[in-house]
Structures are given as structure tokens and as C-alpha cells.
Amino acid sequence: MERYNFKIVEEKWQKFWHKNNFFKTDLDKNKKKFYCLEMFPYPSGKIHMGHVRNYTIGDVLARYKRLQNYNVLHPMGWDSFGMPAENAAKENNLDPKGWTEKNISVMKSQLKKLGLSIDWDREISTCSPDYYKHQQLFFLELYDKGLVYKKENYVNWDPIDQTVLANEQVIDGKGWRSGATVERKKLSQWFFRISKFSDELLLGLDKLDKWPNKVKVMQKNWIGKSYGCEIDFKIEGNKSIKNIKCFTTRPDTLFGFSFLGISADHPISKFYEKDEEFQKFKQDCSKTGTTEESIAQAEKIGFKTDLIAVNPFDKNIKVPVYFANFVLMDYGFGAVFGCPAHDQRDFEFAKKYNLPIKTVVKPKNFKGNFKVNEEAYVGDGVMINSSFLDGLNSPSDAISKAIEEIEERKSGKKKINFRLKDWGISRQRYWGCPIPIAYDDQGNYIRVPEDQLPIKLPENINLKTKGNPLDHQEEWKTIKIEDKNYKLETDTLDTFVDSSWYYLRFCSPTNEKYGYDIDEIKYWMPVDQYIGGVEHAILHLLYSRFFMLALNYQNKEFISKEPFEGLFTQGMVCHETYKGENNNWLSPDEVFSEDGKNFFTNDNKKAKVIVGPSESMSKSKKNVIDPEKIIENYGADAVRLFILSDSPPEKDIQWSEQGMVASYKFINKFWILHNKILEKLKLNKKGLDHNELDIFTNKLIQKITFNLEKFNYNVIVANIYETYNFLIKEIEKDYKAEVLKENYLKILTLIMPVMPHIISEAVKDLNHTKKIEWPKADAKYLEEKFVNIVIQINGKKKSLIKIKKDLKDSEVINKIKKDEKISNILSDKNLLKHIIVKNRLVNFIVK
Ligand code: ANZ
Asked: Which of 53, 87, 203, 762 would suit a FRET pair with 221, their CA atoms being 20 to 30 Å apart?
């Protein structure tokens, strides 16, 4: 028998599948559909192990659903706009388009080698005008619906990438790509009015019962619905300023009010613009980013005004008004009332500027005098030092009472606030989708008419300019609209816009008129199963949900509101990290070990290597394994088997060379088993009929089907190993050829989604000509033949006996009486009667 040659077999099947359009969707719309989608990759150069894991998980599901006779849509595309292309091209004097297209072609061939069941006819690339033309149309549609607007705003400015970032793209005060500390900058920007849908985005989460809870919680927090009230504080000290509005969630703490804080960008700032000290203060403020996180961490600074605010609950309590760096202009009204005893930011501010800290809430069980000293007390409690609120439970009862009182005094009213801010979509970069807007000489803007779309990006331009390269493209910028000259908008769209609707495009990728075809959408949407990294929990998944709502808005035809019915977030692929003597990162290729404990560098066998913890594979720490090499060495089936083994798909997995080798060996062992079975079949024996094999196969159908539905893919790998161990022994028996073949074919079908190449080859060897389908378990083989009977004497459990199921009562009693322990007990007793619960229990009543 020849050794299994995975190279020949895998290449053969990959060619066969694609030549025969094996993974094309069915045009018959009466068939039940299944839309299986994995997050599409950024074409950075090569695929990485994260892709291998993500796409293998999706592929197993897609193949399983196809075998179940669903009409499966399993497409792939490229998230191909974005900064790395521009940066790489700048460094190497290349064109981003050429760089991107080359990467796409390399990565596509790598994905094909993994044996993915993708309908490549539907491939899309977001940097292609065929794609972004429709995005420009959507932009105009949203613009017409009032869901796009431009405003001057403070933005997060990434000084390294020289671009604006959305709040979601600032992590711990740093740019998500460059890692640079983000600054504040005032710029005129385009926005999507995502905040209009805050409530719908929040309510929609409740219906997503096939989403991981953690993702829903993250989105919920991000949307951040707050119940509270607005308070109109009377202001003294400047005749032009009558009052300042604040939003608060804690009106119960009003008696602890010791300053009023306003944002440096509050409209009132215009009265202080000429003050040099105020100017300096404003400059200091711009050193902190605009996200709440960065502001919370920054040192609290303020600028005292000559204004005084009056407490609505007591006209005699008057406090100073400060500009404060921790007050955001775009939350609530850009103003807060400061209660240092019960808010940590206010506390830090009060400490710095020597403002009173008056305690108004005391912990419930605290005996004696409670006073806030070291830090703000933000817990529940009972109201103190608060006149008519004293004794009430805080926050619950005290808030209701405080709001009632505020409304009565006409000083404010109940209010709901959302943390979610509109999505800033302008990016000052070249390699993105141009915004279809043009400006006249005065800077007034108009939409570019639909028939002048797409606005294509200019190619082969000089990228080594300061700021946005498009600003320097005079010829490109000039556009004639109805015979008048305009200048095109040079900002491009955030790449997250590209990925917010790509799942719609896959349903009708060649539709020229519009981004999607409504009939296709009605059939395919929503995506039944979406699979990707949890790092997109807020950004991409929230933007996509918004996009669906925005398209639905004022649109009677569009039906599905949520893009992704099921969501699965897979864990990371991890590897140990290595460092050389100079503290430099080393890749696994650069180190070796004989005992698995002590590691040395390859080039200098004495140089000791420091082994660090296993972390998710990343280029920066060099702890990466190149999938291409691994597929080359071990084959796609072995890689798929390994990447699904050991860890549940939602958990991190440790890469191990030994594990990989074990999977490879298994594939080869399986081939030997397969050949043994073929030989058995050739003998065409008339041996055993109903037997253990039927029982095993039917139980396996039940197990693997269940595990597929529940994403227990690592358990399926264990099931496959079990199957091998069973079959290698079982085939020693003499089986009737038809029985063996029928069972074996079912078993192969069950394993096919995980190891599609070797199994396709095995099925072909069986000369099975009909289309194979997912097998159904036959209930008669699933029934347990034996049952455990509890034996009681006067209601007390004495023994447990395994007997055949469904025996007659008299047979059961006879069997039990033969049990030594029971017969001993019964020997000197007077048996009055017995009670039998069929297949479960026998209770002997004795005296
Ligand atoms: C007074 C107060 C007293 C507050 C207290 C809290 C505790 P959430 O729950 O996140 O919505 N706030 C309001 N507008 C703000 C702005 N533009 N910039 C910074 N902070 C602002 O937070 C609501 C609380 O955040 C509000 O309740 C307000 O401070 C502050 F013991 O009002 B609070």
C-alpha cells in the first residue's frame, strides 16, 4: 500500500471543487438558505494563524450545512483600503493599489490551499471602484435622509498617522494602530448620525439570542444609556449669562454641590477668549485626548471664572464656576455640577482647588459620623446633611424625590442621555473611499450628483507629502457640476465604513445599479452565522448594526434590521515568546531546544534564550508561525484537524509543533485504516448483520451533529480519534460487505467537514456515485439496551444492578434475588411485598 500523499490528493480536490463550481450557491430560492460568513481579512501580505482558525471554523460549518442540503452562501472578500497600504507604499516607493492587489493574490492562493469551501465568484474588494461606487451612493442616500452631517469638532488626532480617529479607535488614550498618545484638535469633519439610533441599537441587543453575552454587554456599555435629569443653574456675575444647564445622574447629591464645571469649549468660553491665562489653560487641555478614559486618567486642571452658580434647592448656597478639563463638550450639556464627596473626578478637582467636600450620603450600616476624606464615596446609602432628603435611601428613593422637587421648582426635568456619540468618518488619508462632496469658492458644499459617480481615487500619485496627499492633487480635485467648477472633498472615509455593509454586497456582488439587489437581500439576509474576533465587539459590529438601521430608515422595502443573527467569537492562537541576550525578540524559527526546557539560538548554540509566557501570535513579538509553511509540510487536513483540537473554539489555543505532528500522523494512520477497510470490502463477505458497528455509527451521528450545532469542535476532533480506535479493532470482525460500506460511508460523511480532502478521496474509493448527504441517526440504535435498577429494602437504597431493559416484572425479581448482597439481606427477613418502577427501581418491603 502506498503512503498517503497529501500534496497530490489535496491539490487534486481543490482543483476539482473549483473547476466544478462545487461551492456555488443554488439559484433555487425555495431551498432553505444558510449564510455563513467570517470577518473578511485585511490584505496585509500573508495569512496568519488567526485567519486559519477563523476560516477553518467557518468552513466546517459551511460544509456541514451543505451536506445537510442547505443552500449555503460562503463568500470571501478583502478589506483592502486603509493605512498599512499607504504607509508600505510610501516607504517602498510603490503604489498602494499595486501593493494591495499583490497581497490579495498571495493570500487568496493561501486560503485556497487551506481547502476552504468558498464561492470565489462572489469575491469583493473594498478598494475597487465597483465596490466603493455603491458606498458613495449610500453616503448620498444617508446624506439625503439627514443621517450624514458636517461639523467643526474637537477630534482625536493621531500625530504619527496624521489622521483623525474615532473614539472607538482610541485605546487607553492611544491610537489603535500607531500606539501614539492621541491629541485634541479642532477640525471640520463628516459624521454619521449613529446617535439617532441609540435606543434601537440598545433594544435590538435583547433579540440577539445567538450572540455571546459578553459582546452584548460591551455594546450596551458603549451605548451607555443613563437615566437622570437636566438642571438649569441660575448664574450671577455676568449679565449676559443667565443660566447653565447640566446633566446629572445624581440629583440626590445636590446639597453636596461645591463648584460648577464647564468644558473649555462651552459657548461661555467666548467671554474668556482674550484672557491669556485662559488661552494657556485651553492649550493644556488639548494635551489630553477626547475620550473619557484619557480624561479620567489625566491630571485634573481648571480655570476659575468670575461667575457664581446658585443651588436650586437653597438660594443661599452659591458656588464658583470653573472651566475644567474633565468636562466633555459632547456629553450632556458640556457642564457638570461638582459634588466632590461622591464623584472621584470632582473629588480630585476639589482637592486641587481647595473646594469644600461635603458628605451627603452615608453607607447604610455605618455607625456614627461618616465623612468623606481620602476618596469619593460612590456606593449606596442613606441621605445626610440634605434637608428634606435626609433619611431617604440613596440613590433610588432620594433621586426620585430630588427630581420631583426640581420639576416642581421649574429648575429642570427628567432626562435620558446616551454615551454613544456620532461616528466621525473623515480621514485625512489617500487610500480610502473618496467622499462624494464638492465645495464652491466660498466653501459651501454640495453633493456630487449620482451620475458623476464613482469619484475614483487618482493613481500613482506622490504620497510623500505633508498631511493628506489628495490635498495636493489639484487636477483631480477640480470637478465640474452643472458647468460650474467645484473642488472635491479630500477627506476619505474611515475604512470601517467599507466593512459596515460588505455582507450585503456578497448577496449580489455584481449588481451594477445599487449596492444590493433587494430580492437577494430578502432571501439571504440576515447572515445566519458570523464568525470573527472579539476585538471587533464594539467597532465593526456596532457600525454594521447601525448601517442596517440607516438603510432601513425611511425605506419600506428593506426588511431585516439586524445584520448578524448568530455571532461566534473565536479565541486567539498563542505561542511562547522568546528573547535573546540583548532583550531582542526571537521568532520560533530562530531558537531550538533538545529537552523542551532549555532553549538556545540556532546560530550560536550556546546563547541562551529567555522563554516568555505564551501570548497571542503577533508580529511585534515575533511569536508567529507561518501557516503557509505548515500547510506545505503537513497538508491542509492536518492543519485543520490541529487548529480545531485541544481548545474549544471560543478559547485561546496554544500552538505546539508536537500537536501539529500528531495530527499529521493521525491523517496517515487514517489512510492505513481506510485501505484496510477497502480490502475488507473487496472480500465481499456475508458475515455479521446487525451489530456493534450500527450502534456506534448511529451514536456518532448523534454526537457529531450535536457538537457541530454547539460549536464543540474540539470534541468533534476527539470523536474522530474515538472513531479510529473503534474501527481499527472492529474491522477485524467479519462484516457483511453492504453493512460495512453503509456504515463507513456515514462515518466518512461525518468527518468530511473537518478533513475534506482525505475524506473526499476515501469516498471516491468506495465507488459511491450518488450525492452524499448528512446521515440521520436511527433511533432504534440509540436506545440503551441495559438499565441500572436501584434496589431498596424498606425504601433504603442497598444496591444497584445492571439488567436488560424492559424485562418482565417476574424476570426482574428473579434476577435480583440471585444478587448475592440482596439474597443475604432477604434470607432471614419476611418479604411482605415489592414495588416496581419499570426500568428504574425495585423496593422490597420486609419485616
Ligand atoms: C453630579 C454628580 C454627583 C454626578 C455625583 C455624579 C456623581 P453617566 O452615568 O455616565 O451618564 N457629567 C455630565 N455631563 C458631563 C460632561 N459633559 N462631561 C463630564 N462629565 C459629565 O454620568 C453622568 C454624570 O457624569 C453626571 O452626574 C455628571 O456628574 C457627569 F455624586 O452630576 B454627575
From this structure: 53
Q: Whose CA is nearest to atom 26 of ligand 1?
A: 248
Q: Give the torsion sign (CA, 360, 362, 367, 373).
A: negative
> Exposed (0-12), middle (13-18) or buried (19+): which is 828, by Cβ within 10 Å?
exposed
Alpha-carbon distance of 382 to 394, in angstroms, equals 5
Please indicate whether residue 719, judged by its CB atom, sits closer than 6 Å to ligand 1: no
Count of C-beta atoms within a 10 Å radius of residue 619: 11
- Is 653:571 a contact under the CB 8 Å cutoff? yes
Grid cell 450600616 is found at 365
CA distance between the termini of the chain = 71
845, containing H or E segment? strand 841-846
The reported pTM is: 0.87
Strands 314-324 and 610-616, sheet pairing: unpaired
Q: What is the pLDDT of residues 118-165, one digit of tens each?
A: 999 999 999 999 999 999 999 999 999 999 999 988 788 888 878 888
CA distance 842 to 836: 5
Residue 238 C-alpha to ligand 1 middle, in angstroms? 25
Is residue 388 classed as helix, strand or coil in its secondary structure?
helix
> What pLDDT digit, counting tens, does each position of 670-726 carry?
999 999 999 999 987 787 776 789 999 999 999 999 999 999 999 999 999 999 999
Question: Torsions phi, psi of 437, nearest 5?
Answer: -135, 145
Extended strands (E) in 580-721: 585-586, 591-593, 599-601, 610-616, 653-654
Does ligand 1 come within 6 angstroms of the Cβ of 60? no
Nearest-CA residue for ligand 1 atom 33 is 248
- Per-residue burial over 752-780, b if 16 or more Cβ lie within 10 Å, else e, is bbbbbbbbbbbbeebeeeeebebbebeee
Helix (H) or strand (E) segment spanning residue 78? strand 77-78
